[in-house]
């Protein structure tokens, strides 16, 4: 069983064996049986199906919400510290937020003021992840502890960024496999912010629900592509080195942490949907039906970047997104992509305000997101169909040990 997911057994089991129940939850699929075999939850509340009972630990070497499979619902919220608030207020805020996040992720009420919105549902794989933006260090007098990895991202020629919906002192990422559970966490943390911090921007996203497919499958984005296939696997030898800050660095408080680049990328769906299937597939270099490379095989087959077609041209075109972004084309630059789709209706321009809340995780953005985005900016076939509308970069510290709160190693040192 994964270290990252626990099952609230008393509320789940009933007629199922423990192994069966855990398997359903971890598979992320659930399937019909996952929703059928319910037990009386006794004092813990009503019984739960596998999706409701799945629980991610709050404490650990890394914060939750990085390596876990992306959940069905997501909220991304940036806060700015209130005028006059500094380090003392930030310490109190991170203590309050950490205490609330621990209870929320355990599926427990957050005290007398709990709104009951998530009552009955269980943890639903809720994760709450906290990050600090570059401006946080100015506001709290901690400039000497600001990592150089938080240096501003370069300006890319295709950027069309809205500064009001970019950056921020603090960032909260919420993910859950139930919309009410995710909303409950969002409201609770907004309430707990009190007078210390105000919401700067908020974005809401989604992914496929667990149980929608008979077995776990890579999700699709709103262009219809299978998206996430070639993500580095947590079991890979170099995964930790690429994604997490290693001990012994210039900012010891960031050991076990990671840097999140967050970009709201609008999809120009009216244009994309007019493109014939073959042309759509050439934009990415993979088949739309199953995500397999255009050079053949299945979804997980390696891309054959040298293969030529009968016409003597590269089967995976020179400007195909998957070619340009591949680590082997970028000196090994590797990031973990963990996005949510978003849809906020029709924009003032009359076209869908929909796309990808692109979130990527890495130990150092200057060796991962930045070089890859530089290259995509120069010649990605996908760029005709997308627009980067907001951008943010956050330092996400390691997970709290017993007795710690998130960010304590930065704020208390
Ligand atoms: C700078 C990094 C990246 C941005 C921005 C980005 C935007 C973006 N991507 C898709 C759709 C797909 N991306 C795929 C692969 C892929 N994309 C990146 C990086 C960025 N994408 C990487 C590193 C990779 C993996 C490359 C590899 O190793 O082969 C794919 C293919 C399937 C997969 O491997 O996930 C799709 C599809 C969209 C729609 C988008 C912006 C809206
Ligand atoms: Fe991509």
TrEMBL record:
Residues 218-399 form the Dyp-type peroxidase C-terminal domain. Residues 287-309 are annotated as: Disordered. One of its GO terms (molecular function) is heme binding. It is found in: Cell envelope. It is an enzyme of class 1 (oxidoreductase). Residues 63-207 form the Dyp-type peroxidase N-terminal domain. The lineage of its organism: Bacteria, Bacillati, Actinomycetota, Actinomycetes, Kitasatosporales. This is Deferrochelatase. Involved in the recovery of exogenous heme iron. Extracts iron from heme while preserving the protoporphyrin ring intact. Binds 1 heme b (iron(II)-protoporphyrin IX) group non-covalently per subunit. PROSITE patterns: DYP_PEROXIDASE (PS51404), TAT (PS51318). The chain crosses the membrane at residues 12-38. Its EC number is 1.11.1.-. It comes from Streptomyces fradiae ATCC 10745 = DSM 40063. Its cofactor is heme b. GO terms for biological process: iron import into cell. It catalyses: heme b + 2 H(+) = protoporphyrin IX + Fe(2+). GO terms for cellular component: cell envelope; cytosol. Keywords: Heme, Iron, Lyase, Membrane, Metal-binding, Oxidoreductase, Peroxidase, Signal, Transmembrane, Transmembrane helix.
């Amino acid at each position: 069983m994964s270290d990252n997911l626990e099952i609230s057994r008393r509320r789940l089991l009933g007629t199922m064996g423990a192994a069966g129940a855990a398997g359903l939850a971890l598979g992320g699929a659930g399937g019909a049986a996952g929703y059928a075999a319910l037990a009386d939850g006794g004092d813990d509340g009503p019984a739960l199906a596998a999706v409701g009972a799945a629980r991610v630990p709050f404490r650990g070497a890394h914060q939750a919400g990085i390596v876990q499979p992306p959940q069905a619902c997501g909220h991304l919220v940036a806060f700015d510290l209130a005028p006059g608030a500094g380090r003392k207020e930030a310490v109190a805020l991170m203590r309050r937020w950490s205490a609330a996040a621990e209870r929320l992720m355990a599926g427990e009420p957050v005290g007398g003021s709990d709104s009951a919105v998530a009552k009955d549902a269980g943890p639903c794989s809720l994760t709450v992840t906290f990050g600090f933006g570059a401006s946080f260090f100015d506001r709290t007098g901690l400039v000497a502890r600001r990592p150089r990895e938080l240096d501003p991202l370069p300006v890319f020629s295709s950027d069309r960024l809205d500064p009001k919906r970019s950056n921020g002192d603090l960032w909260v990422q919420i993910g859950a496999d139930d919309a009410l559970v995710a909303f409950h966490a969002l409201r609770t943390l907004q309430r707990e912010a009190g007078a210390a911090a105000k919401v700067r921007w908020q974005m809401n996203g989604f992914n496929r629900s667990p149980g929608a497919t008979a077995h776990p499958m890579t999700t699709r984005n709103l262009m219809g592509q299978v998206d996430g296939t070639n993500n580095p696997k947590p079991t890979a030898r170099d995964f930790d080195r690429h994604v997490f800050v290693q001990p012994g660095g210039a900012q010891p408080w960031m050991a076990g942490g990671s840097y999140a680049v967050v970009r709201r990328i609008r999809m120009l769906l009216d244009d994309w949907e007019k493109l014939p299937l073959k042309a759509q597939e050439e934009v990415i270099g993979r088949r739309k039906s199953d995500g397999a490379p255009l050079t053949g095989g299945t979804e997980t087959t390696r891309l054959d970047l040298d293969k030529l077609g009968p016409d003597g041209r590269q089967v995976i075109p020179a400007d195909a997104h998957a070619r340009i972004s591949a680590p082997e084309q970028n000196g090994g630059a590797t990031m973990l992509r963990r996005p949510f789709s978003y849809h906020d209706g029709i924009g003032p321009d009359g076209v869908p305000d929909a796309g990808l809340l692109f979130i990527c995780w890495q130990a150092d953005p200057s060796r991962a997101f930045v070089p890859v985005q530089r290259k995509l900016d120069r010649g990605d076939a996908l760029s005709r169909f997308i627009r980067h509308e907001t951008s943010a970069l956050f330092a996400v510290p390691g997970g709290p040990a017993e007795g710690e709160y998130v960010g304590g190693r930065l704020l208390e040192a």
